[in-house]
Amino acid sequence: MRAALWFLALFGVAVAVALFVGNNQGSITVFWPPYRVDLSLNLVLLLLALLFLILHVAWRALAALFAMPGHARSWRIQHQERAMYAALLDALSHLLAGRFIRARKAAEVVLARESAMTRSGETLPCSGRLRALSHLLAAESAHVLQDKTAREEHFRLALEQASRRGAQEVREGLQLGAARWALQDHDTQGALQWLDDLPQGAARRTLALRMRLKAARMARQTRSALETARLLAKHRAFSEVAAQGILRGLARELILTAHDLDQLQAVWNQLDGVERVMPEVAVEAAQRWLSLGGDANVARTWLLPVWERMVAQPGALTDTQRIGLVRVLEGGFKLASGAPEAVWLTRIEQAQMASPGDAALQYLAGIACMQLQLWGKAQQLLMRSLPRLQDAGLERSAWQALAELAERRNDAVAAAQAWQNAARAAAA
């Protein structure tokens, strides 16, 4: 469509010119004493057009002639830029491929070419970033090659370039690289210092948080590691299973750092709701609380959400988690001041009746009845649970409890047999 319009316009112009030239009777007289020259108006217009065309072509030719030195300079700069960028790509490619010596040499070629251009008076707009990145690549290669002297020298020069105008955005990458090198050198304090020096926005990036988590764990700063892991889980830096595993492990480590009841209570208050209902965390906290001489009722309160989850969802807890929960509840019941409350005895009985085939619940109900001096019922429940107990520790404890019950009713033969079975279970 556009070409057709152009053709129509061209034909229109041609018709207009033909009409103007064909009927134009005008003339121009030029007096040049003692001569007189009569020229047709059409000829004069044609000569003027030719003169304009000649002047235009001459002007373009002169401009091209005078621009040749500039074009030559631009070509040289372009050639140097292409050579530098090719060397920079070589450095990156060799670094990714594990050819660290070649990567360092390629980065040094970039620096040498850039220095030669600077000495010749040519300055690239991105020369600061180019030098900083080249020094960073050389430092990275030197770090892998265990050449710490060269690494520190290139890193110092990279920091100098990054502090200049136009290359400040490279500084964050340099700081992250320095933190990573410090972690690989097992310098946790140096790594944390570099991470603390990052701007607030950069410090909350996933890469920085991952390194902070690793550094905090290496430095045994469990509380800081737990807070960092929470941020990473919030940003979905891990899968859901991995995030729960990391949070669970750090929470348990933090619980083990408490050496008295006040510290343990403070640690428990610092845990969030998701961490408190994790079976391993709640069991570990309750076990630690009881081992420090704390009130058994507090431990049972911490275990209540896990217990309710186990009762409401029979398959929610693994066998190991169920056994750990039973063990801690048993330890609380055996304390002098830890006799089962009526509400807990009701919970245990209801759970045992709801799952009559659960040997662990039968065992726990028997221990609770034993603490309440319900000797007959305790013996009945323990005897019923023994054939189905899969855990050697619970089996040993059940036989020990039966031995104590036999001694209480002065049945020396049954007590001796129970003690022998307990020893056999312990040796298994």
Task: Describe the secondary structure blueprint for this structure.
Layout: H1 2-22, E1 27-32, E2 35-40, H2 41-66, H3 68-97, H4 100-119, H5 127-144, H6 148-162, H7 169-184, H8 188-196, H9 200-203, H10 206-218, H11 222-234, H12 240-256, H13 261-270, H14 273-276, H15 279-291, H16 296-312, H17 319-334, H18 342-354, H19 359-371, H20 375-385, H21 392-408, H22 412-427
Antiparallel strand pairs: 1-2
Helix pairs in contact: 3-4, 3-5, 4-5, 5-6, 5-7, 6-7, 7-8, 7-10, 8-10, 10-11, 11-12, 12-15, 15-16, 15-17, 16-17, 17-19, 18-19, 19-20, 19-21, 20-21, 21-22
State the gist of this model:
The chain has 428 residues and is mainly alpha-helical. Among the domains are: 77-118 and 126-167; 361-428, Serine Threonine Protein Phosphatase 5, Tetratricopeptide repeat. Helix content is 78%, strand content 3%.
Largest sheet: 2 strands, antiparallel
- Measured on Cα atoms, how large is the radius of gyration? 44 Å
Q: What is the number of E strands?
A: 2
Order of helices and strands: HEEHHHHHHHHHHHHHHHHHHHHH
Count, helices:
22
Strand composition percent:
under 5%
Amino-to-carboxy terminus distance: 94 Å
Helix/strand/pairing class, anyone?
A: mainly alpha
* Helix content percent band: over 70%
**Uncertain segments:** none
Mean pLDDT: 84
Keyword list:
about 425 residues, Serine Threonine Protein Phosphatase 5, Tetratricopeptide repeat, two-stranded antiparallel sheet, 22 helices
Task: Write structural notes for this entry.
- The protein is mostly helical and 428 residues long.
- Among the domains are: 77-118 and 126-167; 361-428, Serine Threonine Protein Phosphatase 5, Tetratricopeptide repeat (Alpha Horseshoe).
- 78% of the residues lie in helices and 3% in strands.
- It is built from 22 helices and 2 strands.
- It has helices at residues 2-22, 41-66, 68-97, 100-119, 127-144, 148-162, 169-184, 188-196, 200-203, 206-218, 222-234, 240-256, 261-270, 273-276, 279-291, 296-312, 319-334, 342-354, 359-371, 375-385, 392-408, 412-427, and strands at residues 27-32, 35-40.
- A two-stranded antiparallel ribbon has the order 1-2.
- Strand 1 and strand 2 form a beta hairpin.
- Helix 5 packs parallel to helix 7.
- The longest helix has 30 residues, at 68-97.
- The radius of gyration is 44 Å and the shape is elongated.
- The N and C termini lie far apart (94 Å).
- The mean pLDDT is 84.
